[in-house]
Design a protein that fits this description.
Elements: E1 6-12, E2 15-22, E3 25-31, H1 37-40, E4 51-53, E5 58-60
Antiparallel strand pairs: 1-2, 2-3, 4-5
């Protein structure tokens, strides 16, 4: 059976990111960084381009 979509909150001294995992895709849905590049990037579905939030020192990459 397929895993239901879920969210993970990552909170560090630099700030927080809410990460949503659903059906082979990962995205940052919310963050308290100023630029919002990680949120505006949208979902990734492969290992070509990671999601990076530089202010929070966060990198999200799908591994095949």
């Amino acid at each position: 059976a397929a895993v239901s979509p879920y969210e993970v909150s990552v909170e560090t001294e630099y700030g927080y990111n809410i990460i949503r995992v659903s059906h082979g895709a990962v995205e940052v849905t919310e963050a308290d960084c100023s630029e919002q590049v990680c949120v505006n990037q949208g979902a990734i579905t492969d290992d070509l381009i990671p999601i990076v939030c530089l202010p929070h020192h966060l990198v999200i990459q799908i591994e095949e």
